[in-house]
Structure formats: C-alpha cells, structure tokens
Fold this sequence. Notes:
By secondary structure, this protein is α/β, with parallel strands linked by helices. The chain has 2 domains: 3-147 and 297-372, FAD/NAD(P)-binding domain, CATH 3.50.50.60; 153-293, FAD/NAD(P)-binding domain (3-Layer(bba) Sandwich). The chain has 14 helices and 25 strands. The strands form 8 sheets. The chain has a 6-stranded mixed β-sheet with strand order 5-2-1-9-22-21. Strands 13-12-11-17 form a 4-stranded parallel β-sheet. β7 and β8 form a beta hairpin. α3 (54-66) runs parallel beside α13 (354-372) and α10 runs parallel beside α11 (243-253). The protein starts with a helix and ends with a helix. The structure holds flavin-adenine dinucleotide (FAD). Residues 51-56, 75-78, 84-85, 87-88, 119-120, 145-147, 174, 176, 205-206, 209, 213, 297-299, 337-338, 352-355, 357, 386 line the site of flavin-adenine dinucleotide.
Amino acid sequence: MNRRDFLLTPPAMALGMAGAPLAAMAGPAILTRESRILPREGKGPRVVICGGGWGGMTAARYLRQLIPNAEVILLERNPTFWSGPMSNKWLIDVVSTDFVHHDAQHPANVYGYTRLQTEVIGFERERRLVRTAHGLIDYDFLILSGGIRNAYDAWFGNDQKAIDHTRNHYPSAYIPNAEMLALKQKVKNFKGGTLVMTLPPPPHRCPPSPYERACLIAWHIKKNKIPGKILILDPKPKVAPISMGYQTAFRELYPDIITHIPNAGVQEVDPFNKRIKTLAGEFKFDDAILMPPHQAAEMVWQAGLIGKTPDGKPTGWADMDPRFFHARSDDRVYFVGDLMGHISSQFGHYPKSAHVANYIGRIVARNIAERVAGKEVIARLPDNLCYMMVNADPQEAISVKFEYEVDAASGNVHQTQIDEDVRTNDLVKEDFVWIKDKFSDFLAL
Ligand SMILES: Cc1cc2nc3c(=O)[nH]c(=O)nc-3n(C[C@H](O)[C@H](O)[C@H](O)COP(=O)(O)OP(=O)(O)OC[C@H]3O[C@@H](n4cnc5c(N)ncnc54)[C@H](O)[C@@H]3O)c2cc1C
C-alpha cells in the first residue's frame, strides 16, 4: 500500500452507512483500493451493476427475481435517487422534492440486493474485476449503466477553467447531481434578459425534454411577469420529436418569450463574456443553460468499450450487440440505459429515456438469467413513451411513443414514431400514472 492508496481509503464506517453489510467486508485490517472487498457469499453467480439510476436499479430488481441464488451488487456514487423524469416539473413546483428524490436503499432491502455507495474508477476485464474507490470487486457478469457524461471537451478541449466556469454558472442539469438544485435556484432568481439554452446534437439524453424545460420556464416567466426571453439554440433543422405539438405551444402559449433557432450547432462558447458562436450566427446572453454534447458515461471509456467510427474515431457510445446488449468484444459485459450504442441504420440509437432504460434493464436481467440457466437467449425489443408538459396552468401535456419490430428482410430493427401533438390534461394524468407505475417497479414505492 502506498500513501496515496491509504489517503484514498474511506473509513470503514462509511462503507457500512452506504448500505453494504460491514461483515461482508471483513478482510484486511486496512482496506486500500487494491484490496478485494465483498467476498463471495454462496455458490450462485455474481452480477455487478455499475450505476444505480433508472436502468441499473431495474436490472438489480429483476436479476434477484429471475436468478434467486444470484448475488447482485449495485455500485452507485450518489447516496439517494434523483429522477430525471418529472424534474422539469419540479423546477417550477408542479411536483415537490419528495416526488423526484427517493431513498435508494429501500429497494435494495425489499428486493434483496447489495447497494454500495462508491465511485467506479476502472476495470480489469481479463480478471473480471471492477475497480472502485473502496477496493476491487469480482464478477461473473457485469452491467454498465452509468448514464451519460457531459462532453465539455468538445467545446473547450482541456481548458478546465472554462469547463468549471460553465458547469458552475450555466449548469446543464441533465445528470442526477447537485446541478438540478443549482438550476432550480437559477430559475427562481431569474430577473429578466435573454436566457439561452443550447441543445446537444443527437443522440442525447431524452430528446423532447429540453423543449419541455423551455416551455415550463417560459410559463414561470409569463406567470411572474418577468421581462425575460428564452432563446433555444438547436443544432437540428427543426424541433423534434413532437415537432408540431411543441411549435404550437411556442406560438400559442409563449409567442413573446420563446424563440427557437434551428441549425444552430455550437461552434464556440465564451462563458466569461457570455457569447456563443453557432452555425446560425452569434448570440449574447444574460443567463444560460449550456448543454454540451452528451456521450456514454466515463465507465464505458474506462472499460475500453467505446465504439469506433469506420475512420477509427470514438463514437462516444458503447460498442454493443444491438439485439442482446452485450459488448461486442466481451460477452460478460452488458449495457443498460443511455450509454448504449448504435442499434439500427434506420434510426440510430434507441431514445435515451428512462422508459427505455427501465425496459432494457428488464431485458438484460432476463438475458443473463437465460444464460445462467443454460437456455437459448431470446432477443427482445423495448418500446418507448414520453409525456412532456407544455403548460402548467391549466396543466397540459403532449407525448411521443416509439414502437419497434424486426424487419424480416434486412434483420434490422425498425422504428415507428407516433406523436401526440394536441396538448391535453388527459396526457398529464397518463404521465402521473406512468411514473407511479415505474417508481413502484424499481423503487418499490
Ligand atoms: C430534465 C429531464 C427530463 C427527463 N424526462 C424524461 C421523461 O419524461 N421520460 C423518460 O423516459 N425519460 C426522461 N428523462 C431521461 C432519463 O432521466 C434518462 O434517460 C434515464 O435516467 C437513463 O437511465 P440510466 O440508468 O441510463 O442513467 P441514470 O438514471 O442517470 O443513472 C446512471 C447512474 O450511474 C451513476 N454513475 C455514473 N457514473 C458512476 C461511477 N463512475 N460510479 C458510480 N456511479 C456512477 C450516476 O450517479 C447515476 O445514478 C429525462 C431526463 C432529464 C434530465
């Protein structure tokens, strides 16, 4: 053990508080990052899940159900669970903090898996080991479900000062962390002027939700008579998905507040002088929500499992089998949720949504259960459904549904998109039924 290892070793008490049984960690008197922790219990297979959000927690629940003798270990950096879905509504108090923020140890207790609060920092795949801030954990199967990373380097290279300034002053709030609270504070404190929102280029997390965020902040601006405007800088040629529904909402509900600028791919960001250069021109802002490009979470890069383009550049997303969700180069490693890679030449990626993460969490648990039982693994397809609130009084939403089937001729997965463009209160009610159903599924609420 060197000094660095010693300093990085968290106190044993913190391990216990994080939810993993302390007895299971008995071993060397002083734990270091090189120590093996969580010795095996029983003879069943061990599945380690990295990332305990929508996808990871769902996989954990179904693995315990489908493989009763499996040891399932979920590794998550956050102490509690924050939901992306409903967080735009929480920004303007349509729902309370208790609605989006939940105890993450409760489902682990109910479903019988081990949750360890720790940082995943690397892998030794040849030895089937996960490297964490608390030590090494071995696995038979590994699931990576760490969501996304903000690729600020695409804007700033390695200029850490610009990255930190942007993150601190213009948080994207698309990852479950303290940025959500910072954004809520920003909305509450907004006194007027131009609020710029940059949208990431596709594929990115929850494509319709930045427009929902714009609508709900616009609603707040309108209600409180704040002399403010929202400028949406969109790299796409038009609003998508639910194009008509959103454009109608912008025009009918927020004509003097929201301006949507298409083909506005970001070229340069100067967060200190509040200027953005895009393909559609240069813009100044008073305040901003700056969303950089999204990529697969750091853990996929650390595992060496990022895909490559034909000319050898990283795709930014997991290199995986599109029907069975395991890594192309390592079938002991599965991917669940937003970090997943390319699926089909027709539509590219599955929507990076909570609905899909939850669905694939179940599918991957089933795939692993079939392999463990020595059965043929059946390829399964998800669907997707997202409700987006565009008006908070009266409460009205629009929605988009995606269905998938395999094209018999090409073997390609085929997508059908169904937009519900007419805003209604019934869709708001359906949204609340949807989220309650999902929360009961993996949060045991
Ligand atoms: C504003 C907003 C609105 C949205 N609205 C909807 C909606 O209406 N419907 C819908 O279906 N989807 C919606 N989404 C998208 C949804 O939140 C994501 O698609 C979903 O969370 C993806 O699940 P995941 O498991 O891949 O990632 P996450 O839920 O983000 O989980 C990943 C977890 O991994 C953890 N993690 C990452 N790296 C490490 C590490 N190194 N060590 C330990 N832990 C790590 C993270 O802390 C996180 O908890 C919305 C998202 C946002 C931001």
